């Protein structure tokens, strides 16, 4: 009757059409039951020849629905459905055709949409009758394993849609097999058709988050020189922002949509780093990056796209709030790092995109929350937390989806995203069938949400953080339809957070035990935060000696933010390797300021200077360092006037400095001496250098030997003098000639001559009477010069074995 009315050019009211359809179903029920009984008998008789168990009945043919347009038709539209049918059975199918079926009545709840999507088999009462007529595509036969394409176009009026709502649309294949020569449903695929041709009296305010987030790409390593060329882990970011890449698709699709942009400032900083000279790690080496043009173009397009739109800036590098709350908050410095990442976010986005971002929102992974996550999320200044309805669930039996904003105490608002809509495109969207079904189901849920009540509400949709290119395309397709539809209107995230809360909506934060185990397993462990803290401590000790701290503090600080990123979830091994790489590079830098190893040193004499060389292979100069030299046996060897002495160090980049310490020997033997660098706050810097000083001559003994030798010389001289004087007197008495001889040899000169003649190179003293007293003559002690700083050219050679110190 309804079909006749349509052919006559009349159109019954929706209510009348529903009554007619219901009456027809009731009247036809007995007849349909009889037909089903008749069809059962041939099936039983043909059982031995039936298709395999995995391809029988409605499972015999796979029906793939690859496209449906328009996704949300209105009056006067023609619905076109395309796809393929594949015979999965072993028997050839004959007299087959593909047709469309509209459910007998619109679905009434959001849960009924989920149930319909999971239903298998064929039910005449639920799946409805076939449109039939000329709106089918016929196949004379379908051979086993062969896929055949189909396209069916049907005017909307032929679908006999009634009241506004969500209808189940089935695409079925009917045919015969050699085992059952009668028409039967051999395959069916279902989707949903949202039907709301007229403007809704009350539109749902919808907020869709459009995330621009990526993994961590930059390392802490930078090149020498003023430009500090950054180094990337790999070239993946180039792929993402190039034509067809994930981030290029997010940008090109998002610029035409009514969305709220959610941006990780680290992504912007990384792309900016690509606009100039940069390097890419390739194995153990680096190669020059060559994607400057691509990076500049992507940034320029993004700056244009976000003008006039709301931009929400996440903390730098998108730190994992749940991991911090569960495993990191007890580790010193972790929460302060979150605060720093939040503070730098706004400046980064504003400087690059020239828009003022909103930094009031925190977004835990998957919107899963518990009290500790809420506390950590708001500790850095955010007062709004993006949660999700499968975490903060309704417990009051509401028959509708409440407004997203929920006050949860302490001046904090939970913005609860709708879980079903938020997860609509998380599957593999590369297949046409999967993407088509996902889009239709998303639109169906959206329309059903609007039809739940006449009260206007605000809903928020927070998709996955890093959608693939195909997922982004399906998201954009659904949003484009939604924007052109009749039941939804766009609203930015800030407005959604400020909407009047529903007094009946749940505001109870779930306990920590309710946090999903699957997410807890992916969280960063406590050891990760301890490693980050260790790296920070090493950086703090290193930076105090630098003349230009920002060259090191800035890249390392941002890199440690990246070590806390949400993007490491599910990739623990790569996260650990990244942390190890950061620590290793910091160790490499700190080792560039070091003490040069010394070999055993010989010391003779009362005092001497010991040089210790400090080398600086950094580009910049270092200061605020003290070099301390300590004697392990001060009773044998003193450094200065005590067991140790220390001097300040100030070395230019690429130079070495030799620092001299005065030592005083007290006893024979070997002494271990320790050289150690210290920072100005008394912390040890680098590894100590331990070397041995061998004291071979002791001061008191040397002085006794010298004194004895001098005394012998004086006595010998005095004896020779008296003997010469007596001889001269005798010669004077004998005659004038002897007097003249005595005059030519005065006593003083004679003593000197004699003295000189008795001291030989063998170190033995001889007298003129032939006495040979074997008294050794020691070398006179040499006084050391005053120690002075010695700035030498860089030399890393080890000291020679048994070197003698400067004296």
TrEMBL record:
- Provide the transmembrane region boundaries: 702-721
User: Where do the segments described as Disordered lie?
Assistant: 731-807
Can you tell which superkingdom this protein's organism belongs to?
Answer: Bacteria
**Record's Gene3D superfamilies?**
Immunoglobulins
List, alphabetically, the InterPro entries matched.
Answer: DUF6049 (IPR046112), Ig-like_fold (IPR013783), TAT_signal (IPR006311), TonB_box_CS (IPR010916)
What keywords does the record list, in alphabetical order?
Membrane, Transmembrane, Transmembrane helix
The residue ranges flagged as biased composition, category Basic and acidic residues, are 780-807
Keyword ATP-binding, does the record have it? no
- Signal peptide range equals none
Q: What name appears for this protein in its UniProt entry? A: DUF6049 family protein
